[in-house]
Design goal:
The complex is a heterodimer of chains A (303) and B (168).
Chain A (H helix, E strand, L loop, with lengths): L13 H9 L4 E5 L6 H11 L2 E4 L6 E5 L7 H4 L3 E3 L6 H6 L6 E4 L6 H9 L5 E5 L3 H13 L5 E4 L16 E7 L20 H20 L1 E11 L8 H10 L2 E4 L8 E2 L3 E2 L2 E2 L8 E3 L1 H4 L4 E8 L3
Chain B lengths: L9 E2 L15 H12 L10 E4 L4 E5 L11 E2 L1 E5 L6 E2 L1 H7 L7 E4 L1 H8 L4 E2 L8 E9 L2 E11 L2 E4 L10
Parallel strand pairs in B: 7-9
Antiparallel strand pairs in B: 1-2, 2-3, 3-5, 5-6, 8-11, 9-10, 10-11
Classes of the chains: A alpha/beta (303), B alpha+beta (168).
């Protein structure tokens, strides 16, 4: 937990934060409405005797009380998908609509891409991209298991992504669920901090900036881009969005979030960020007993 | 007629007469097959397109794409053609099988469990067609498709792919 000391000044109730990071995380799942309604899936869980608690902020998210969430009927039928509670936040903030063209720039293994498809009633086009071919096979497996027919899967570097292969030249919305230092997954992966160092943070933030800029460019004026990570490091969060604000036509906008969270930072170390970054959300593990996440919502503006 | 190119996705021709690639199924044949074999109403597929990549593998897609297109995946695999008996995929059956009325074999809970685990089982009581069947079981008040099975000589063979098999 040593690396987290740097966040002491920015996290309220830092001791509660550290204590939460020490506790393992329970099993959460998302109800896949492509395959069945929320009511029916809950009934199937009841029938199987799997106890659950529905999340207040999202009826499609359940906390499961079972040691083998993968060996249930609901999972076999693709009615549920194991997905961390906070990881279901970015697609909800992006709010894609049926029939739209949506880009998931860093999509593997597909938890959020299939959630986007479900939010669109599996109608429209979700371009699910990842640069890692091995992870794409997991993405394809999940997409088929969950019955997502609106996904087109591509394997490319998101920073230089070309839409040439599609019959449209911009997206309505884009999600950048960026590769990151994963500090917020400490409860699931206790060794998440093993290779932590500032050098890694600075190199991954370069990649994040490149992907977010490309996402803004590839989205139509008036369209929405959501940037998210599962890490706390401001270099990978506010600083990345700040870079997009300075270099692309976009602004940070407000959004509602039914989970407890803190606002984004307007400064870190010697750097100051645009005030609008306070509209971003930092979700800490002790606030809702989840993993950690950062989410910012951007609107693409005129040049 | 040209040969099938296994590297890219090509949209299926509407009918036989528009076919330009040797041996390629048409959209009409695919939809007819699902209706003739399983009683799935053709309207079910009104908003979907069908694609071939690799010899005989058919994909079903709801989004926009030009043909041909070279990407990793387009929608989901639904059917294996270019063989005597066409074979739907388990994932397709789980997604669209609720619209089927024919060749659906209803299993008891224990039989469903064996099926999900990939086991073959003797089910002499089935008096319907032989060949590929949709196996289903009762779940939360409705029939829920489990996957595709092959029924021959009194035996139902689970075709659930290895990676999808579960001990429930
Ligand atoms: C946090 S994970 C995405 C998780 C995914 N959104 C989900 O919900 O299942 C980040 C992904 O970004 C991919 N990635 C890393 N660098 C990339 C790049 N330059 N272009 C595209 N994808 C990249 C990684 O392979 C990894 O799968």
């Amino acid at each position: 937990m040593e690396p987290f000391e740097r966040y002491r000044p920015i996290i309220d109730d830092f001791d509660a934060f550290l204590a939460a990071c020490e506790r393992p995380l329970g099993n959460a799942a998302r109800i896949n409405t492509i395959k069945g309604s929320v009511e029916r899936t809950l009934e199937a869980l009841d029938e199987e005797g799997v106890a659950y608690e529905q999340a207040d902020w999202n009826p499609r998210v359940v906390r499961l009380e079972t040691d083998s969430p993968g060996s249930t009927w609901t999972s076999f039928h693709g009615l549920t998908h194991g997905q961390e509670e906070v990881s279901a936040v970015p697609p909800v903030v992006l709010d894609p609509q049926p029939g739209e063209r949506v880009w998931d720039s860093c999509a593997a293994p597909g938890g959020k891409a299939t959630q986007l498809a479900a939010l669109m009633d599996d109608r429209g086009t979700v371009v699910a991209n990842d640069n890692n071919l091995g992870r794409i096979s997991a993405l394809r497996f999940n997409a088929e298991r969950l019955g997502a027919t609106s996904l087109a899967v591509t394997n490319a570097d998101a920073r230089t992504y070309s839409l040439k292969r599609f019959p449209f030249d911009e997206f309505d919305r884009a999600l950048v669920d960026a590769p990151c230092s994963c500090e917020g997954t400490i409860r699931k992966n206790p060794d998440a901090l093993d290779n932590w160092n500032e050098g890694h943070i600075s190199s991954v933030s370069g990649i994040q900036k490149g992907i977010l800029r490309r996402a803004v460019q590839a989205t139509r004026e008036g369209g929405t881009v959501v940037y998210s990570t599962c890490t706390f490091a401001p270099e990978e969060n506010e600083a990345v969005v700040q870079h997009a604000l300075e270099n692309e036509a976009c602004r940070v906008v407000d959004f509602d979030l039914g989970l407890k969270h803190s606002s984004g930072l307007s400064e870190w170390d010697d750097e100051t960020f645009d005030d609008s970054l306070e509209r971003a959300a930092r979700i800490y593990p002790h606030q809702n007993d989840t993993g950690g996440f950062f989410v910012a919502k951007l609107e693409v503006t005129a040049e | 007629m040209s040969d099938n190119d296994g590297q890219r996705f090509d949209r299926l021709p509407e009918t036989d007469t528009e076919r330009t690639v040797e041996g390629r199924a048409s959209r009409k044949e695919v939809i007819d097959y699902f209706e003739d074999r399983f009683g799935i109403p053709p309207e079910t597929f009104a908003d979907y397109t069908f694609w071939e990549k690799g010899a005989g593998k058919i994909w079903i897609y709801a989004g926009e794409a030009p043909t041909p297109i070279e990407i990793e995946a387009i929608g989901m695999t639904c059917l294996r053609t270019r063989q005597e008996h066409w074979k739907p995929t388990t994932d397709f059956v789980q997604r669209f099988g609720q619209f089927a009325t024919d060749c659906v074999i209803e299993l008891e809970r224990e039989q469903a469990r064996a099926f999900a685990a990939g086991e073959d089982q003797d089910l002499e009581w089935w008096d319907g067609d032989w060949g590929y069947l949709i196996a289903a079981h009762e779940l939360a008040g409705d029939l829920e498709p489990l996957g595709i099975g092959l029924y021959v000589h009194g035996e139902l063979r689970s075709m659930v792919p290895k990676g999808r098999q579960r001990d429930i």
